[in-house]
Amino acid sequence: MLIMKNLLIAILIFSPGIIFAQAFKVEKVVGNVKVQIGASEKWDQVKSGEILNANSTITTGAKSTVLLTGNNFTFVLKETSALPLANLKKMSLDQLILALAMQDMINAPRKKEEANSKNTAVYGAEINGIKEPFVVSSNFGIKRLNGAVQLAESGFKESAIVVAKDTFRKYPEASTIPSFRIYFANLLAGLNLNEEAYDDFKKIESLKLSQNQKSEVDEKLDLLSKKLMKD
Description:
The longest helix is centred in the last third of the chain and has 20 residues, at 211-230. β2 and β3 form a beta hairpin. A four-stranded antiparallel β-sheet has the order 4-1-6-7. A four-stranded antiparallel β-sheet has the order 3-2-5-8. Helix content is 43%, strand content 22%. The two termini are 29 Å apart. The chain folds into two domains: 16-86, no CATH class; 93-105 and 115-230, Alpha Horseshoe (Serine Threonine Protein Phosphatase 5, Tetratricopeptide repeat), CATH 1.25.40. It has seven helices and ten strands. The protein is α+β, with helices and mostly antiparallel strands. It has helices at 2-14, 93-106, 140-153, 157-170, 178-190, 194-204, 211-230; strands at residues 23-30, 33-37, 44-45, 51-53, 56-60, 65-69, 74-77, 82-84, 120-127, 130-136.
């Protein structure tokens, strides 16, 4: 019974379309910004002053941004990014752990795909020693990962991890980009979820890494291994 209760809680947390109560006001739109409501396949242009609920997903084109306000916060989604608004919320560490457990249960083995060679990775500033990846691509999964990074930058780290994990599952090609995988594994380590971070870095080992990335992954695995041995 307890397992079923925890599973139900995890489903409620993890499923972005379940909680619609919070509303978001569109304060400013620059360029091409679109929204998809619920299960609709239609994308509509977003307008300044519009009110969107959490059952919405927004996406931005090149050189486009949108400024949203919610319950005591503002958030800017930058260019070539996407975000389910249900994930624009604060989560506790316990809620994150339940969401990760749910992800493990529904994650199935899948065929690996090569990342699109046209994707171009660039980096912004470092926050707490972690490089922020940004990949220019029209691939929707990669745009979601760009949005997840921006969630983390804005203080929604737990929600950002949930978005990333869900995106890696739904868009396998996006999961092959080392810069994103390393970034979110580092976020897990920063939240002291050492076992989860270690598992992620072990999976990252099998990706096509640059020498610098390989050195970073080896270093993090060694550090996390020592921490886990002390626990």
